[in-house]
Specification:
mainly alpha, 18 helices, globular, disordered N terminus, Growth Hormone, Chain: A, disordered C terminus
């Protein structure tokens, strides 16, 4: 059995009071994510204004997914070889500079710049995401991992709600440029907060081979690690499956619905913010409620993931009614509720199972799969919205297709042997 399972998980307030390094990491994430959602709302609204094309908006989300897919393998090796605190700060600075470029986009001919800057920003972001997950067990105790992961995940959800709502309000009332300015400033503030964190890199990083040849070898070792552990491999596929079938494509639908069917504010900026905001509330509330039932228990978290799939499907079918705005928002909440459970618990399972020396590469591989399948899901939905399939039927197809991973994960959970659980958790 793991050490974690023998210790009582620490409470949320206790962790925040007692762990100074985690407080700085958490504070930096709050500020950085606020800007992230400002940027998403602003760039999507800008693209909708310049092109009025579902395929063009779909292209934005494809790039948001595809860029991290390309850089994730490198990010994983970097996170396992170099100072993780320095990586987090550097990525914030690079992203802040990149966001300033959005201010110079004025005409339809400049659309390619949106895609280019988005690729740089999100490609760099994969280094931040991978390193943040890798550094977490370095700065918290074993019985703090589940609590810390939940706080960071709920923060992501909360800032989606707050950032998307504020971004929608700013874009809807004052225009798109102020949203980009705020985004750039948040990255600078985040880098400063992370600088306050006291962090000593693991000893193996200082002695590891830093050559290019070693980098390829180390990444191959990470892939081999997963191939030899089917359970952990399947866990790394969960976020990708959710992105392919639901979350990535649904983001495009939210932009389309906000701009046309439920348009409020300039370019639907306010309604778009509400859509993303309600989804964020759902992704935060879902795992928070579920963890009160499951705790850090491995088996209970796996069954909660099954429930998460089903709730997401119900949410998609609810949105597909295209009824009253409040009903569509409620369906969006349910979709986020289920998706949040899948995201948080899959991350925690990996945190509890994967050793530190390969953690960066495993999380990078997970993120690479997530972004690749998310890009595919975005491309399919963007193409469908410009084709013969209505948005209503597309949502119904997506809501039904989610039964496939739900059934497969249920079968694996039922048939996974107890000896394997203990062996992989040691």
């Amino acid at each position: 059995m793991t050490t974690q399972s023998l210790e009582t998980p620490i409470s949320y307030s206790q962790l925040l009071r007692s762990n100074r390094n985690f407080r700085w990491l958490w504070s930096g994430q709050i500020v950085s994510l606020l800007g992230d959602w400002f940027n998403l709302i602003a760039s999507a609204a800008l693209l909708a204004q310049l092109t009025e094309s579902g395929l063009a908006i779909g292209g934005l989300f494809v790039i948001r997914m595809l860029a991290p897919f390309i850089t994730s393998p490198i990010a994983g090796v970097v996170a396992d070889r170099y100072n993780r605190k320095a990586i987090l700060m550097a990525t914030d600075i690079i992203r802040g500079i990149t966001v300033v470029g959005f201010l110079f986009i004025r005409r339809p001919e400049d659309v390619w710049i949106i895609y280019a800057l988005t690729a740089i920003q999100l490609g760099t972001g994969s280094f931040f995401f991978t390193t943040r997950n890798a550094i977490l067990p370095d700065i918290v105790k074993p019985n703090e991992i589940g609590t810390a992961n939940t706080i960071l995940s709920i923060t992501w959800s909360t800032m989606l709600a707050v950032g998307a709502a504020l971004g929608g309000l700013v874009a809807g009332f004052w225009g798109i440029a102020p949203a980009f300015i705020i985004d750039a400033l948040t990255f600078a503030v985040s880098a400063f907060l992370l600088w306050q964190m006291a962090y000593t890199p693991p000893k193996e990083q200082a002695t590891s081979d830093k050559s290019i040849a070693a980098a390829f070898t180390q990444y191959a070792e990470g892939i081999k690690y997963l191939k030899e552990r089917l359970d952990q491999l399947l866990i790394t596929l969960l976020k990708g499956a959710n992105a392919l079938l639901i979350s990535a494509g649904f983001q495009i639908m939210q932009v389309t619905l906000a701009e046309s069917t439920y348009s409020i504010g300039e370019g639907g900026g306010i309604s778009m913010g509400l859509f993303f905001g309600i989804a964020g509330i759902g992704t935060g509330v879902g795992p928070l409620i579920a963890r009160r039932i499951t705790g850090d228990d491995d088996g209970k978290m796996r069954w909660a993931i099954v429930i998460g799939w089903l709730i997401s499907g119900v949410g998609m079918w609810t949105v597909s009614t295209l009824g009253a705005f409040w009903l569509v928002l409620f369906g969006t909440f349910l979709r986020g509720f289920g998706g949040g459970i899948i995201w948080v618990f899959s991350t925690q399972l990996l945190l509890q199972l994967v050793p530190g020396e390969v953690r960066g590469r495993i999380f990078a591989t997970e993120y690479m799969i997530f972004t690749l399948l998310g890009a595919l899901g975005s491309a399919i939905v963007g193409w469908a919205l410009d084709g013969a399939i209505s948005i209503q039927w597309m949502m119904r197809i997506m809501g039904t297709s989610i039964l496939v991973p739900a059934v497969l994960w249920t079968i694996w959970t039922l048939n996974r042997s107890e000896p394997d659980k203990v062996k992989e958790a040691v």
